[in-house]
Design goal:
Largest sheet: 7 strands, antiparallel
Keywords: Membrane, Transmembrane, Transmembrane helix
Shape: elongated
Organism: Brassica cretica
Oligomer: single chain
Radius of gyration: 61 Å
Protein name: Late embryogenesis abundant protein LEA-2 subgroup domain-containing protein
Number of strands: 16
Helix content: 25-40%
Length: 321
């Protein structure tokens, strides 16, 4: 009985239940992939997730469609924003390029720097030159000593007989560099000792370097060897010894010889002439002040002053040239 009752219930249920409709297709929710965002050319991948209701129909189809549309809309907005930002950035770069092209080129700045530096350097050099030029060296001729002065007969290169003079003298002077920030290199022209417009002896200053704010004594040897005088050397010849003069005496028999001193010879005028050259290299050859001193000394030579110092401090003139 129980078996028959169950079969009858199943039969009644199957007979009474309506015919089911065909199975509806499943709906899928698509979401954007997180794998890549590559600018404007981003490839979008989707993951499909089937959602089925127990009855075979999608219960959340409306909510899924709205969610998909929102995601796609936000994605489109994001892409549009990226394209707009890229376009703005590109326009900004173009504007920057236009501004650079409108400004001064780089070589103009380099040229301006070179010109400015040259002007500044020239101004600095002028300041150094103006500061160094007034600091002139000081030269003081002290004395001259004649060790030898001898006149004798001879012949010149052409065989003409005349008086020849041989002399040797030493000249002393003091050189002082007054520069406070530079040294000087010192040379001179030939130092000529002349008599009656004839150079009877000469010498020169050996080149030396004088440091700042210092001084030294300069000694110059002057030599003349058999210089012809052509008739003008009579005053240079020492006078002969005086001859004795006999005088008769009343008290004693015979004459008494008395030697009277001769009249002193006149001093022999001589002239000393030379130029001292001083060069200061303050900033190499760019700032190169020069100091030239012309010196002229008048000497009154006397034979009794042979091998003695003849002072020249008050007999010399020093002028800048």
């Amino acid at each position: 009985m129980h078996t028959n009752a169950a079969d009858s219930e199943v039969t009644s249920l199957s007979a009474s239940s309506p015919t089911r409709s065909p199975r509806r297709p499943a709906y899928f929710v698509q979401s954007p992939s997180r794998d890549s965002h590559d600018g404007e050319k981003t490839a979008t991948s989707f993951h499909s997730t089937p959602v089925l209701s127990p009855m075979g129909s999608p219960p959340h189809s409306h909510s899924s469609s709205s969610r998909f549309s929102k995601i796609n809309g936000s994605k489109r907005k994001q892409h549009a924003g990226d394209r707009k930002f890229a376009r703005i950035e590109e326009e900004g770069l173009l504007h920057d390029g236009d501004r650079e092209e409108k400004g001064l080129p780089r070589r103009c700045y380099v040229l301006a720097f070179v010109v400015g530096f040259s002007l500044l350097f020239a101004f600095f050099s002028l300041i150094l030159y103006a500061a160094a030029k007034p600091q002139k060296p000081k030269i003081l001729v002290k004395s001259i000593t004649f060790e030898q002065l001898k006149v004798q007969a001879g012949q010149d290169a052409g065989g003409i007989g005349t008086d020849m003079i041989t002399m040797n003298a030493t000249l002393r002077m003091m050189y002082r560099n007054t520069g406070t920030f530079f040294g000087v290199h010192v040379t001179s022209s030939p130092i000529d000792l002349s008599f009656s417009q004839i150079t009877i002896g000469s010498g020169t200053i050996k080149k030396f370097y004088q440091s700042r704010k210092s001084q030294r004594t300069v000694i110059v040897n002057m030599i003349g060897d058999k210089t012809p005088l052509y008739g003008s050397g009579s005053t240079l010849v020492p006078p002969p010894p005086p001859a004795p003069i006999p005088i008769k005496s009343k008290k004693k028999k015979g004459p008494i010889v008395i030697v009277e001193p001769p009249a002193p010879p006149a001093p022999v005028p001589m002239r000393l002439n030379f130029t001292v050259r001083s060069h200061a290299y303050v900033l190499g050859k760019l700032v190169h002040p020069k100091f030239y001193k012309r010196i002229v000394c008048l000497i009154n030579f006397e034979h009794k002053k042979l091998n003695k110092h003849i002072a020249l401090t008050s007999n010399c003139t020093v002028t800048s040239v």
